[in-house]
UniProtKB/TrEMBL annotation:
<dbReference type="InterPro" id="IPR033934">
    <property type="entry name" value="SAICAR_synt_PurC"/>
</dbReference>
<dbReference type="Pfam" id="PF01259">
    <property type="entry name" value="SAICAR_synt"/>
</dbReference>
<feature type="domain" description="SAICAR synthetase/ADE2 N-terminal">
    <location>
        <begin position="2"/>
        <end position="228"/>
    </location>
</feature>
<keyword id="KW-0436">Ligase</keyword>
<keyword id="KW-0658">Purine biosynthesis</keyword>
<dbReference type="InterPro" id="IPR001636">
    <property type="entry name" value="SAICAR_synth"/>
</dbReference>
<dbReference type="InterPro" id="IPR050089">
    <property type="entry name" value="SAICAR_synthetase"/>
</dbReference>
<dbReference type="GO" id="GO:0004639">
    <property type="term" value="F:phosphoribosylaminoimidazolesuccinocarboxamide synthase activity"/>
</dbReference>
<comment type="pathway">
    <text>Purine metabolism; IMP biosynthesis via de novo pathway; 5-amino-1-(5-phospho-D-ribosyl)imidazole-4-carboxamide from 5-amino-1-(5-phospho-D-ribosyl)imidazole-4-carboxylate: step 1/2.</text>
</comment>
<dbReference type="InterPro" id="IPR018236">
    <property type="entry name" value="SAICAR_synthetase_CS"/>
</dbReference>
<protein>
    <recommendedName>
        <fullName>Phosphoribosylaminoimidazole-succinocarboxamide synthase</fullName>
        <ecNumber>6.3.2.6</ecNumber>
    </recommendedName>
</protein>
<dbReference type="InterPro" id="IPR028923">
    <property type="entry name" value="SAICAR_synt/ADE2_N"/>
</dbReference>
<keyword id="KW-0547">Nucleotide-binding</keyword>
<keyword id="KW-0067">ATP-binding</keyword>
<comment type="similarity">
    <text>Belongs to the SAICAR synthetase family.</text>
</comment>
Amino acid sequence: MLLYEGKAKQVYSTEKENEYIVYFKDDATAFNGEKKAQISSKGILNNKISTIMFEMLHEKQIKTHFIKSLSERKMLVKKVEILPLEVIVRNITAGSFCKRVGIEEGIVLDEPIFEICYKNDDYGDPMLNDDHAVAMKLANRDELQFLRNETLKINDLMKEFFLKMNLKLVDFKLEFGKDSKGNIILADEISPDTCRLWDVDTNEKLDKDRFRRNLGDLVAGYEEVLARMNNK
Ligand code: TMP
């Protein structure tokens, strides 16, 4: 049964109480849904790339919702209740950070920047600080501390992983959920829809900025990311 439909994925229940199926669609949106397109095979690429990322993180003892890939577009996951927070890390300046404060794109940051946003399209996913998140009862202080520590650990692992394939991890967004025991685990997807990835030598953008900013064929970019992952 379809439980939830987002911009890029659908979530279905299964006959098992604690397992869901995530279905990766071909829909691409940007600017809170203002720009839209169907990009043939994007969902297949994101499912494959997310599978590799979740398997890599699992090997490094990070707990995630991933159970296994079921087909080209379907992933079996643990049932979680998604926290209404988008967790962002920036290693290099880009995107909304540049727009908001007028800083140039491409500056390597001395330390990663950790941001949280309220996952709510009606309000354009506004950035929050910890006090806002606690006041809104989106998470408590211990949970926020855990999210920060876990996300920065994941950042180190992902940065190292992508560097091996000559890609710079510029920034990315994660979502976490609570499992049936109340543990917070990594959920959602990790793909070029949710990460900015630039070639180390040329700074060519191989992520969703190709769609957001009309920088070239999106599928060719995602295929290049997947090919590098498979060849490493
Ligand atoms: P931003 O620079 O637009 O804030 O994006 C930061 C990172 O988060 C970037 O890698 C893209 C990702 N992201 C999402 O996955 N979903 C979103 O809705 C937004 C706005 C960004």
